[in-house]
User: Fold Relaxin-3 receptor 1 from Scleropages formosus.
Amino acid sequence: MFNHSRSSNRSLLDKDRFSSLEDIDVTADGSPVLRIIISSVYSVVCAVGLVGNLLVFLLMKVRQGRKRSTVNFFIVNLAVTDFQFVLTLPFWAVDTALDFSWPFGDAMCRIVLSVTVMNMYASVFFLTAMSATRYWSVASGLRKQSPRVSCSVRWVSALLWVCATLATAPTAVFSTVTNVAGEKLCLLKFPDGQHWLALYHLQKILVAFVMPMFIVSLCYLLLLRFISRRVMNNNRPKRTSRVTRSVTILVLSFFLCWMPNHAITFWGVLVKLNVVYWDKTYYMVHTYVFPVTVCLAHTNSCLNPVLYCLMRREFRKMLKELFWRMSSPTTGVTGLASACCVPDLGFKSCLGCLVMDWCPVLGVSPPLLALRPVLPGNALAGCDPAQDKLL
Assistant:
């Protein structure tokens, strides 16, 4: 995804030493403490990302029978990309801890680097698609999704995966393990000099940041303008405030996670094109600041589940229900997943079984509760299992 090619313990004079390597991307790191910190952050991001994205899969599975939408379909694809991406972080954590010396061989270098880059593109593409879909769905006043829309969403998702794969093609072709100063580095090596590497990074900046950032910002600005106009007519300022806050957080998180890395990468492009010169400032930034920006960009993979799921009230409610059901002591026969709560009786009855839960209304503990008969059919006729309540 980023410039994962680094060598160890180089001074500023090493520029002459690596002048023959104009076709590869070489950066440096001279701080063992920084490497340990980055490796630790990678491990934490990997753990949080795995749990967060698995939780998204679980919530989407629970929600599948209740409501399907275009945004939710994109959220699932986004979770897939982020889940695949965090699986590569242990490799980069080991690589960083070993002073950026790649121990896994040429084949794994090509696979891990390609998977990392492909999921970077796919993640950004699906975030952009979600932004456009949100504006389109709100502005068009869609309430129900037609089969034709569902089919279109699948085709759009497939197209985004194809675009991400095509954008990753140079990485898959030119990634390799190369000996630099006696160390094996996993890096990109182009055959015709540093200008190809500069064009590669320029493509990444434009396709994976500038264009998506423009589209995301435009869609959310249009969304805010649309909602503001509707609220002015309906006198609902609280809704505008809530949406404005959510949109601001989403755009800022995307911008702050990616901008520092792409800014330094663009600086490197200017150096490779001889627009600016390699100097001490560039060396220090590339040595000590750039690895931190890589780490910051990696955190986006574990932030996405929080920002795009847990910020939505419906998903927070589903998560609370899930944890409540897992932690509540129950007895009885297992039945259907949905049940109707009868508050005045203090128990839940589902279609064909009865599950007794502790209820403050009854004032008794779970062992004292006994199974009650299933409610008659006419009582269940006014029950909404999806909402777990009587109508």
About this structure: Residues 31 and 45 are 21 Å apart (CA to CA).
